[in-house]
Specification:
By secondary structure, this protein is an alpha/beta fold. The protein has two domains: 263 residues, FAD/NAD(P)-binding domain (3-Layer(bba) Sandwich), CATH 3.50.50; 203 residues, FAD/NAD(P)-binding domain. The chain has 16 helices and 24 strands.
Amino acid sequence: MRIAIVGAGFAGLSAAKVLRQSGFDVTVFERAPDVGGVWSRTRRYPGLCTQNNKGTYHFSDLPMPARYPQWPTGEQVQQYLESYVDTFGLSGVLRLDTEVLSAELLDDESAWLLASRPTGREDDAVTWERYDHLVVANGIFSDPLIPPFEGRAEFTAAGGRVLATGEFHDVEAVRGKNVLVVGYGKSSCDVAIPVSDAAAQTHVVARELLWKMPRKLGGAVNYKYLLLTRMGEALFRYLNLKGFERFLHGPGNGVRRRLLDSVGSVATRQLRLRELGLVPRGAFQDIARSTVSLATDGFYERVADGRIVVHRDQTITQLLVDDGRPAARLADGTVLPADLVICGTGFRQHVPFFDEATNARLQDGAGNFMLHRQILPIDVPRLTFAGYNSSFFSPLSAEMAAVWTVACLRGGITVPSRDQMREEIRARLEWMTERTNGRHARGTNIIPFSMHNIDEVLDDLGLNVGRLTRVRQWLLPVSPRSYRNVTARMIRRTATTLDQRASVR
């Protein structure tokens, strides 16, 4: 089988590696000039680093280099992915700087026809190729979503600029300027730090404050022991409760809530949120409602000394020109000078190379992706998704999803009926919508339930890690290396299925 993969981030590269090790003919298309996805040099903003420590944020069979710091920089993550390509001999299957313009399923649904050309070179000829299967790994954070600000044209004509965080690369460009950072998530708070080193004024406009977790709670306990364990995940209610989770969300619910509240109290005091007027609304357990964000080192200290000013519960209602200079008006009427507006306001989850009809077959009426195990579409054949299970352990989650995909292609999985898959997906989306207030990235963000997803994927294959390993993961951070033999075990097991098929033919 010839298989096309679109995207060369963590998901696309792990899919390529597992597919090649299983004997498939693979081509990886990537519109950027390098591998990395969100970690590409074309998308890295100053101050970008991982939320996970290096011991939990890597593939199962290639640890991060020992010389890396606990929280690697964006450049180091991209270099790690380059080393993954070298280690597993993937350079020959990569087509960098190549954009997939369209992917069409043939009328008889026997194959995909892909159209591609060099990125940004519209005068070049389009290449058409046929593939037996398509893996979509374009990333759920592929297209930045910038609000449609009123008055942007006049603002731009006066010299103002509007960028997404991933489009901001040069700190010197803001030296002495007035900068507004929109959003309160990881990228917004991260980028505000280097900006505040150079800008005349740095204002953060936050529609809604999020709870943040210090990297070391109380200055001593690494957050990985609190949230990157099965116990940490179990503190939040999953769709289907099993084992000790039934106690935590039943008779032990009071203990569970007090534990979360105590962590929230420590974080509030440590970050001085009350003194700064930055205590979010709601309870600390809301930290996992749709995502979990670490507190950016130095952010609250700069709020305290005035180098960063946070406007909570505010939005920009208009970009304008004030006394001949670009500016922005907030919902409360405040007008702020704004030479540059940097938006960390989320992403649009979509597959741009599919036509409307194909996208409609992939989604429900609300635009959510209808994917069994976050991988397999119900109504479109010869297609799987990679990386549409964004989690705390995204590299490991993507890798295990790749194993599932290959097992499916090799006949090692019996999937449920289409009606059963549709009902399970609808129930999951309904639950996700309720618990996140609809902020689940169209069904692709599974935080904080990373290990639940990995368990479901591997239990389908009968390839989950042993009980003792899972017990250890309740109290200790999950180590991706515990899963380093899963791919080889899948290949051995599905080889029997392939032999049986061959004998029947």
